[in-house]
C-alpha cells in the first residue's frame, strides 16, 4: 500500500513510501521457508524437516525476512505506482525503514516515465511521393523479370565489357610478396558490380579470352585487413572465359512462361497494377516516416536515459531471438563479425531514442485527445492477431496482456489522428 509519494527535484524522479501488510509478508516468509528448509539442519530433526518456528528460534525471527522482502518488493512497487499514477522505468534506491511480524515499510527512489504535453501534432506538412505508373517503371519491372530468366552464354568475338562475367585466374602481391586471399583460379567475377578492390574490375574490361596481363591497384584505407590498408598491389591475371547474360524476348511465349497471362499486353497491365501497388505502399511508408520524424521533434522535455537503455536491451533481445531462429545467438554473431556487444548496443542507440520519443509523443496525443479503448476493441485486436499468427485467441492472451494491447491500440489511433490532420504539400 502506498503511504506517501513525493516528486523530487530531479526531473522524472519520485520517492515512494510503501507498506506491506502482515498477511502478505507472512505468506512471503512461508514461501521462503519452504524453499530454504531443504538446506537447513537443526539438531533433533532430519535435514529439510525442521519446523519454521524451530529455525526461527535458533537463528532469530528475522532469518527469512530479507528474502521475503525481496519477493514482496516487485508487486508492492507495481501496486504503489498504480496508486501514485506513475509508470516506473527503473528503481535507483530501495531501503527498508521498518520490519516486524506485522509487515514492513520501505522507501524507493524511482525514475518514472515522463508525462509529456505536446503541441503542433495537427497540420504537420508533408510531401507525398508520386505514385504515377510510367512506361519506364513498367519496362524496368519487366526487364528485371527477363534478367532473372536470362541464361549465360559464352562470348568469343569481343573483349570483356561491364556487365559481363569473366572467368579468371589471379595472383596478387604487395611489394612482391603474396598475401592471404590474393590468389584464385577459375574465379567468376561480374564486371561493373564493384565487388573487388577499386580499379580491379575496370582494368579487366577491354581484355580478350586467353590474354595474360598485370594490373596495378591500391587497397582502400578502410580495407578490412589491417596489413593491406592503403597498400599498392599488383595482380597477374589470366582471362579464360567471357560470359554474358542473354535475355529472353518479350513475346507471348515468354509471358506464358512467367505468368498466367497469354499476351504481352495483358502481362503489361498486370505489371502496371503490381507497380501501382508498390508505389502506393512506398508512398504511404514515406508519408509515415516524414510524420514520425516531425513528431519526434515535439518531444522537447527531458527523457530518462534509462528508457533508452531499456529500449536498446529490448532491441538486442529481439535481434537475439531472430538469430536463434536461424540457429545462432548474439554472442556467436559478434564472434563471426568481430563486433563487440557494446558496439552493437551503440549501433541500436539512435533508433532506440527515436522509438522512445515517438511512443511518448503518441501516448501524450492519446491523453490529450481523450482516446478510449473498449473491451470490444481489445477482443477484436486479439482476434486479428490470432488470425495473423494462425493461433488461438486464448494463446495470444497468455503472452500479450489486455492492458498493454489497449495502450498499443491507443497509440495507433493517435497516429491515425496525426495522419488525418496532416497537410500534403
Strand and helix map with partners:
Layout: E1 2-7, E2 13-20, H1 22-36, H2 52-59, H3 65-84, E3 88-100, E4 103-112, E5 125-126, H4 135-148, E6 151-155, E7 165-174, E8 177-190, H5 200-204, E9 212-218, E10 232-246, H6 252-258, H7 264-296, H8 305-325, H9 330-337, H10 341-368, H11 375-389, H12 393-399, H13 402-420, E11 423-424
Parallel strand pairs: 5-11
Antiparallel strand pairs: 1-2, 2-4, 3-4, 6-10, 7-8, 7-10, 9-10
Helix pairs in contact: 1-3, 4-7, 7-10, 8-10, 10-13, 11-12
In short:
This protein has 425 residues and is α+β, with helices and mostly antiparallel strands.
Provide mean pLDDT, rounded: 94
The gross shape turns out to be: extended
Describe the largest sheet: 5 strands, antiparallel
Subunit organisation of the chains: single chain
CATH-assigned homologous superfamily of the largest domain: Trigger factor, C-terminal domain
One letter per element, helices H and strands E, the order comes to: EEHHHEEEHEEEHEEHHHHHHHHE
Count of domains = 3
Distance between the termini: 54 Å
β-sheet strand percentage: 15-25%
Tally of DSSP helical segments: 13
- Over the alpha carbons, how many angstroms does the gyration radius reach? 33 Å
The structure class reads alpha+beta
Per the CATH scheme, the topology name of the largest domain is: Trigger factor, domain 2
Amino acid at each position: 500500500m502506498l503511504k506517501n509519494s513525493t516528486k523530487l527535484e530531479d526531473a522524472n524522479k519520485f520517492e515512494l513510501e510503501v507498506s506491506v501488510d502482515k498477511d502478505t509478508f507472512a505468506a512471503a516468509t512461508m514461501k521462503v521457508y519452504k524453499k530454504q528448509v531443504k538446506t537447513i539442519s537443526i539438531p533433533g530433526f532430519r535435514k529439510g524437516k525442521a519446523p519454521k518456528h524451530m529455525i526461527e528460534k535458533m537463528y532469530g525471527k528475522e532469518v527469512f525476512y530479507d528474502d521475503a522482502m525481496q519477493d514482496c518488493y516487485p508487486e508492492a512497487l507495481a501496486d504503489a505506482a498504480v496508486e501514485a499514477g506513475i509508470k516506473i522505468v527503473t528503481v535507483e534506491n530501495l531501503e527498508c525503514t521498518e520490519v516486524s511480524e506485522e509487515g514492513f515499510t520501505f522507501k524507493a527512489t524511482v525514475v518514472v516515465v515522463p508525462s509529456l504535453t505536446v503541441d503542433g501534432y495537427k497540420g504537420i506538412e508533408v510531401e507525398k511521393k508520386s505514385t504515377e505508373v510510367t512506361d519506364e517503371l513498367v519496362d524496368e519491372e519487366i526487364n528485371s523479370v527477363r534478367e532473372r530468366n536470362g541464361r549465360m552464354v559464352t562470348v568469343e568475338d569481343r573483349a570483356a565489357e561491364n556487365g559481363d562475367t569473366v572467368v579468371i585466374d589471379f595472383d596478387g602481391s604487395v611489394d612482391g610478396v603474396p598475401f592471404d586471399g590474393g590468389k584464385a583460379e577459375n574465379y567468376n567475377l561480374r564486371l561493373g558490380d564493384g565487388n573487388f578492390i577499386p580499379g580491379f574490375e575496370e582494368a579487366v574490361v577491354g581484355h580478350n579470352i586467353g590474354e595474360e596481363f598485370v594490373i596495378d591497384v591500391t587497397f582502400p584505407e578502410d580495407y578490412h585487413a589491417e596489413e593491406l590498408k592503403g597498400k599498392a598491389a599488383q595482380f597477374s591475371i589470366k582471362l579464360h572465359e567471357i560470359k554474358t547474360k542473354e535475355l529472353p524476348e518479350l513475346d507471348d511465349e515468354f509471358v506464358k512462361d512467367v505468368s498466367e497471362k497469354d499476351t504481352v499486353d495483358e502481362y503489361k497491365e498486370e505489371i502496371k497494377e503490381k507497380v501501382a501497388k508498390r508505389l502506393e505502399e512506398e508512398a504511404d511508408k514515406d508519408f509515415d516516416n516524414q510524420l514520425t520524424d516531425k513528431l519526434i521533434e515535439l518531444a522537447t522535455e527531458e527523457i530518462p536515459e534509462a528508457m533508452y537503455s531499456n529500449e536498446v536491451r529490448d532491441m538486442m533481445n529481439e535481434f537475439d531471438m531472430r538469430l536463434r531462429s536461424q540457429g545462432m545467438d548474439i554472442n556467436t554473431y559478434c564472434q563471426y563479425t568481430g563486433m563487440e556487444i557494446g558496439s552493437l548496443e551503440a549501433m541500436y542507440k539512435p533508433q532506440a531514442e527515436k522509438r522512445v520519443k515517438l511512443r511518448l509523443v503518441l501516448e501524450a496525443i492519446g491523453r490529450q485527445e481523450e482516446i478510449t479503448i473498449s473491451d470490444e476493441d481489445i477482443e477484436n485486436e486479439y482476434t486479428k492477431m490470432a488470425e495473423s499468427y494462425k493461433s488461438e485467441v486464448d494463446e495470444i492472451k497468455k503472452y500479450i496482456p489486455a492492458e498493454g494491447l489497449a495502450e498499443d491500440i491507443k497509440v495507433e489511433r493517435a497516429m491515425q489522428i496525426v495522419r488525418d490532420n496532416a497537410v500534403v504539400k
